[in-house]
Specification:
Elements (H helix, E strand, L loop, with lengths): L14 E3 L21 E4 L7 E7 L2 E9 L4 E5 L7 E4 L6 E7 L2 E6 L4 E5 L12 E3 L6 E9 L2 E9 L7 E9 L5 E10 H7 L11 E4 L6 E5 L4 E5 L5 E6 L8 E6 L5 E5 L8 E5 L4
Antiparallel strand pairs: 1-2, 2-21, 3-4, 4-5, 5-6, 7-8, 8-9, 9-10, 11-12, 12-13, 13-14, 15-16, 16-17, 17-18, 19-20, 20-21
Length: 283
């Protein structure tokens, strides 16, 4: 992704509460979440192009994040002005991060993956890094999530795939030594998404996914389509929810903590820093 110039120096990670203004298209509201009134965490310059975010077993005390162009894993406490990072790879188009079984897993857009022990992040260069090149079919990948001991990956744009009909996903297993292998696949009915949106057809391009720990439903975010799709545990589409493009500038990361709170990260622009929006679960 083309690097944006960043003219504003962010000295700390700010915390604010924002809402949709008059005359702006309002976001739909997910059950249990008010998409119009998040807590906003502005990111420092290093995370202008923040993409994927993740927690370790839902522990909200530490957010793990990466950005599009640098092979670095960042971690920080929400709202903390101090962020740390370790370098795991060369310059590249990195799209998502997951933490699984005490390993950090980073995904590049061409379905190449990097793994290393989470214990090795406290040095300038991560230790024990393994690379797995183009593990999945040819395509562009942006969304990955760890659940139940496995990784679930969605293809944004697949070679030879009709995205008016289907969105392909893959299951990746992590071995105890940090190696990865493709062990399964699944699909999402895009025609059902289009029908719920009142459209005859729709090319669906997911940018992130996460599983709600309270409902066990899958939440699938699309920056291109500006919507969140909710499926059941077996990937059957249940509902779609629009998101406000003014609030969600370029949403590319999604995660839940173990209390069911929803976090969505947005890339920034020349005039806006990247951010993470927190939507607190309301019972």
């Amino acid at each position: 992704m083309k690097k944006l110039s960043y003219f504003i120096t962010i000295l700390f990670i700010g915390i604010t509460t924002i809402s949709c203004g008059q005359g702006k298209s309002a976001s739909g509201n997910l059950p249990g979440y008010d998409l119009n009134h998040p807590v906003k965490y502005d990111m420092p310059a290093d995370l202008l192009e923040i993409s994927g975010i993740a927690f370790n077993n839902g522990d909200a005390s530490t957010i793990y994040a990466e950005q599009d162009e640098d092979g670095k894993l960042f971690w920080f406490k929400p709202g903390d002005k101090n962020i740390s990072h370790t370098k795991f790879g060369k310059h590249g188009d990195y799209e998502d991060v997951a933490i699984l079984n005490n390993y950090a897993i980073l995904m590049r857009s061409d379905a190449s993956f990097y793994t290393f022990p989470l214990s090795g992040i406290h040095t300038k260069d991560a230790s024990g890094v393994q690379e797995f090149k183009q593990l999945l079919p040819v395509g562009e990948y942006e969304g990955m999530h760890a659940d139940g001991g496995k990784l679930y990956v969605l293809c944004k744009i697949g070679k030879g795939v009709d995205h008016n009909k289907i969105c392909n996903g893959y299951v990746v297993s992590l071995a105890s030594n940090g190696s990865l292998s493709k062990t399964g696949n699944f699909s999402i009915d895009v025609k059902k998404i289009a029908a719920l949106a009142g459209a005859k057809k729709m090319k669906f391009h997911p940018s992130a996914l996460a599983k709600n720990p309270l409902t066990r439903q899958w939440y699938i975010l699309s920056s291109v389509n500006k919507m969140i799709v909710v499926t059941d545990a077996n990937w059957n589409v249940q509902q779609i929810y629009p998101i406000d493009p003014d609030m969600f500038l370029q949403p590319e990361g999604m995660a839940f903590d173990n209390q069911g709170n929803l976090y969505i990260s947005n890339e920034g622009s020349k005039t806006q820093p990247g951010n993470i929006l927190l939507f607190k679960y309301k019972r």
